Amino acid sequence: MSRRKNVTQEDFDQCIADLQSKNNIPTVSSIVRQIGGSYTTIGNMFSKWQEENDFSFTQPGPDIPESVIRESNELLVKWWNKIQEDASISIRQIQETSAKQIAQIKSEASLLVEDLQNMERQIEELTTSHETATTALTTQHQLEVDNLKTELSGMTENRNYLKTALDEKSKEAKNSNDRYHALQKKYTDLVDKLANLKQT
C-alpha cells in the first residue's frame, strides 16, 4: 500500500485489515509506516478504532480488568501523540532559531561587505589624491626648473652681452691709448723741432 500525505478513514480501515490478515498487531507506528499521515491524525483514528473494536495491545487476562487495559492503551496513545507534538514543536523552534541565525549572519555579512566597499572607495580616493598631489608637485617642480633655466639663460645672455661690450670697450680703450701715444710722439717731435729751430 502506498504512503499518502492525507489519509482517509477508508485508507486507515484497509491498513488495519491488511495488518490483521498478516497476523500483525496494529499500532500507530506500523500504520504510519505503511500508509503515511501524521502521528496525530493516525493516533486519533487508532484511538477511535480501539474504542469501537474493543482492541488492546495485550488481551485481557484474568487478573487485569478490561477497563484498565483500555485506559492504559488510551494513555499510551495520548503519550505517543504528546511526544510527536513536542517533537514537532522542537523541530519548529529549531527551524525558527536557525532562520533567525541565518538572517543575522546574512545581515552581518552584508555589513561586512558594505564596510569592505567603503574601505575600497577610501583606498581609491587616497590613491587618486596621492597621484594628484604627486602630479601637482611634479608640475610645480618642472615649472621651477623651467623658470630657473629661463633665468639662467637670461643671465648667460647678459653675461655674453657684457663680455662683448667689455671687449669692445677694451678695444676702444686700446685704440684711444694708441692714439694718445701717437699724439704724444707727434707732440714730442714738434717740441724737438722747435728747439732745433731756436738754436739755429
Number of self-contained structural domains: 2
- How many helices? The count is 4
- The low-confidence runs, each spanning 5 or more residues with pLDDT under 50, are 57-63
Sheet having the most strands = none
Describe this structure in words.
This protein has 200 residues and is mainly α. It has 2 domains: 55 residues; 116 residues. 85% of the residues lie in helices and 0% in strands. The protein is built from 4 helices and no strands. Helix 2 crosses helix 3 and helix 3 packs antiparallel against helix 4. The protein is rod-shaped. The protein starts with 8 loop residues before the first helix and ends with a helix.
Q: Descriptors for this entry?
A:
200 residues, mainly alpha, 2 domains, 4 helices, 85% helix, 0% strand
Summarize the structure.
It contains 4 helices and no strands.
Topology overview:
Blueprint: H1 9-21, H2 28-35, H3 39-53, H4 66-199
